[in-house]
Design brief:
The structure is a single chain. The protein is an alpha/beta fold. The chain is built from 16 helices and 13 strands. A hairpin with a 5-residue loop joins strand 10 and strand 11. Helix 7 crosses helix 8, helix 10 packs across helix 11 and helix 12 packs across helix 13. The chain is elongated, with a radius of gyration of 25 Å.
């Protein structure tokens, strides 16, 4: 299957589950969290200490949230009462639901990307977010000399409504330039986008060494976890920068255990199966919700300590009193867990998978053709060429409009854009000839492409966009397309850009 027409339709997997079918999103509580005093015991969001095992069901700590995607409370309680170690008892992104859309609750979407092109397109969903979950996986025992694919095998990015699994280890090429989606690099190097995770500095050191990505805006969840926990209990001497495992933080603050098992240390050289995708999505999505609930609890403390700095700034943790906590030599080490991790068979049972797959959405399964070359363009109006190029473009238009309801860019403009973008050897007059028996006017196709780029902020190769603009009179470009002309002329992003200029 070619990667060039770009979507790898079978690879963008939208995972959800009907395990909680029939549940409705619980109405979020608007009650302000009771402030913790310095001497108060820390038990979730309550100012009263109630051992979880003894608490009545209606008093069990249900994680608070300020996000639009929240855990379904009925599903949460069902998981809490599932047998210890059962698959249904673990925390997962499948428990979360978003606002109603056309009368249906939205589910967290998971994009599984097996090519640079698919990953680049997927990153568009994350570029405007202020906080993202982040994690990576690599081959166990990988040495520095074994290359990027073994040392950064899988990159996981999450917002509250989407998760991207960028499986570098199965990308078709091996050069660094063929592994790094430009938009991913831009997001990781943007200090204004906070990336949250556990041991995130070490993960991003791998990105720098093996992929040339110099990450900024990194937030270590362990620092916030300790600041909140020990400011609440009054044990300020326990606040430090030693790392706390993600599973410990999830179980304490999201109140369900996080799966740990062989899937986290497995062989990443092959495409993931459904069970692995479900598990791989969990870690980075947990980060988003941990950050949110910890921030709720930090802000509820009285007095309120400042939020810890971004990890790359190497600044100390500050207390509410104004005192600072100096870093220890072992600050990057992981603290031992109080209890052994709950290990689960990584292969989900058929009944669980069947439940999850019932509402699994896959893109249509058909072969995406290889982009046309110059030698194929002797007759742009040939039925063979039209059958090879137009149906995939129509499918991309359909998918784009489904994912972006309410957008005003017309289908003709989107179709022309997708044909142009994914077939770099085709000139505008050839696209015009392809689209109609009596060829469209060249200026019509030019306007279609530019409307789509500007209206939907779609990506483009700068040199090719300049070629499109050259079909128009200079005064028209200056009066109507000046922003795109400027964007196409900027020497940034390795010759690539998007339409966010006008």
């Amino acid at each position: 299957m070619s990667t060039a027409m770009g979507i790898e339709m079978g690879q963008d997997i939208l995972l959800d589950s009907d395990i909680e079918r029939g549940y409705t999103m619980s109405t979020p509580s608007t009650t302000k969290v009771a402030p913790h005093t310095a001497a108060a015991p820390f038990q979730g969001d309550s100012s009263v200490t109630i051992p979880v095992d003894e608490a009545p069901e209606d008093e069990t700590d249900f994680p608070q949230s300020t996000l639009s995607f929240r855990m379904n409370e009925e599903a949460f309680r069902k998981a809490r009462h599932s047998p210890l170690g059962a698959h249904e008892s673990f925390w997962t992104h499948l428990l979360y639901r978003g606002p109603l859309q056309d009368g249906v609750e939205q589910k967290v979407r998971v994009h599984y990307c097996k090519s640079k092109h698919t990953a680049e397109r997927t990153m568009q969903y994350f570029q405007d977010k202020k906080v993202l979950g982040f994690d990576i996986e690599w081959m166990a025992q990988a040495s520095a000399g074994q290359g990027a694919k073994k040392n950064v095998s899988l990159i996981q990015i999450a917002s509250e409504d989407r998760i991207a699994l960028i499986h570098l280890a199965v990308f078709p090429k091996n050069e660094t330039s063929d592994l790094v989606p430009p938009l991913l690099k831009k997001i990781m190097e943007d200090a204004e986008i906070t990336k949250v995770g556990v041991a995130i500095k070490g993960d991003c050191t791998r990105l720098r060494k093996h992929l040339g990505i110099h990450s900024r805006g990194l937030f270590e969840l362990s620092h916030l976890y300790k600041l909140v926990k020990y400011s609440a209990s009054g044990d300020l001497n326990l606040i430090n920068k030693r790392l706390v495992s993600l599973s410990t933080q999830v179980e304490e603050h999201l109140h369900l255990p996080l799966f740990k098992g062989e899937v986290r240390t497995g062989d990443w050289s092959s495409p993931l199966h459904y069970s692995q995708i479900i598990y791989a999505a969990a870690d980075t999505y947990a980060g988003i919700h941990l950050y949110d609930v910890l921030e709720i609890k930090r802000k509820a403390l009285d007095p309120t300590p400042p939020r810890p700095y971004h990890a790359e700034e190497e600044k100390p943790i500050r207390l509410a009193s104004g005192a600072i906590i100096q870093a220890e030599e072992a600050s990057d080490e992981l603290e031992p867990e109080d209890q052994p991790a709950r290990v689960l068979d990584p292969n989900l049972p058929p009944s669980y998978l069947a439940s999850a797959k019932e509402t699994l959405e896959l893109d249509p399964d058909f072969e995406i053709p290889i982009p046309v070359k110059r030698e194929d363009l002797s007759d742009p109006r040939s039925p063979e060429l039209q059958a090879r190029i137009i149906p995939p473009a129509e499918l991309l238009v359909q998918k784009f409009r489904q994912e972006h309801p309410g957008r005003r860019t017309n289908p003709a403009s989107l179709r022309a854009y997708f044909i142009w973008y994914h077939n770099p050897d085709m000139a505008v007059p050839e696209i015009a000839a392809l689209l109609r028996a009596v060829p469209l006017q060249t200026n019509t196709v030019v306007t279609y492409i530019l409307d789509a780029v500007r209206g939907e902020k779609l990506p483009f190769e700068k040199a090719r966009l300049r070629e499109v603009l050259d079909y128009l009179p200079k005064d028209v470009v200056q009066s109507r397309w000046r922003g795109l002309m400027k964007a196409a002329s900027e020497e940034t992003n390795g010759g690539k850009g998007d339409g966010d200029k006008d």
